[in-house]
């Protein structure tokens, strides 16, 4: 018999019981590694109005949803899920500074441009294959720290230096790529 997935509401209740805190007042909420895993982000997350860092990593979530009410959210961790696109992220575009979304199946970056305050994007091991998608990151003026290794685009470059040169030439705003600082020539 298959287990029913954990709902966000159940995960939040479990977190409150474990921590002895009220979720709606908490700044950091970690709902990763739920068993059974969370499969859907839902409206229960919107009640977390004071949450600045939300972790839903290592579940079985396939799309970003239910976070529109999270008006304090700065860091969203969704690594190791089944997310296919960034649709839904725009609801937290005003406040989000860091998006940790490695090990998913994202192949397009449509919509990333609304993330004007995004400073950190960890999205290694996804499915980005084309420069046209990568170039959408130019629409994120605050982006400084990018981890992109493990995407087909990266792996298809002749070597690491070619990758770093191509990426840093396209994204003048970044100061760190794949964990290594970018040194630029200054005039």
TrEMBL record:
Gene Ontology molecular function terms on file: alpha-tubulin binding; dynein heavy chain binding
InterPro entries recorded: Leu-rich_rpt, Leu-rich_rpt_4, LRR_dom_sf
SUPFAM superfamilies reported in the protein's UniProt record: L domain-like (SSF52058)
Protein's cellular compartments: Cytoplasm, Cytoskeleton, Cilium axoneme
Keywords linked to the UniProt accession: Cell projection, Cytoplasm, Cytoskeleton, Dynein, Leucine-rich repeat, Microtubule, Motor protein, Repeat
Keyword S-adenosyl-L-methionine found: no
GO CC aspect terms: axoneme; dynein complex; microtubule
Gene Ontology terms: biological process: outer dynein arm assembly
Signal peptide span: none
Similarity field: Belongs to the dynein light chain LC1-type family.
Name of this protein: Dynein axonemal light chain 1
Organism: Papilio machaon
């Amino acid at each position: 018999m298959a287990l029913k997935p954990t709902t966000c509401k159940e995960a939040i209740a479990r977190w409150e019981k474990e921590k002895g805190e009220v979720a709606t007042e908490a700044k950091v909420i970690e709902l990763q590694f739920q068993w059974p895993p969370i499969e859907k982000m839902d409206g229960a997350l919107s009640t977390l109005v004071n949450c600045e860092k939300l972790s839903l990593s290592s579940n079985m979530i396939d799309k970003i949803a239910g976070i529109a009410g999270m008006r304090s959210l700065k860091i969203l961790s969704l690594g190791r899920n089944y997310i296919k696109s960034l649709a839904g992220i725009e609801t937290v575009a005003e406040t989000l500074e860091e998006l940790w979304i490695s090990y998913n199946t994202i192949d397009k970056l449509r919509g990333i441009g609304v993330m004007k305050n995004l400073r950190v994007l960890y999205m290694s091991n996804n499915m980005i294959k084309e420069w046209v998608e990568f170039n959408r990151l130019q629409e994120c003026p605050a982006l400084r720290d990018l981890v992109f290794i493990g995407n087909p685009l990266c792996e298809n470059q002749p070597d690491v230096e070619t990758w770093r040169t191509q990426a840093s030439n396209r994204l003048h705003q970044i100061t760190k790529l794949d964990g290594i600082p970018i040194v630029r020539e200054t005039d």
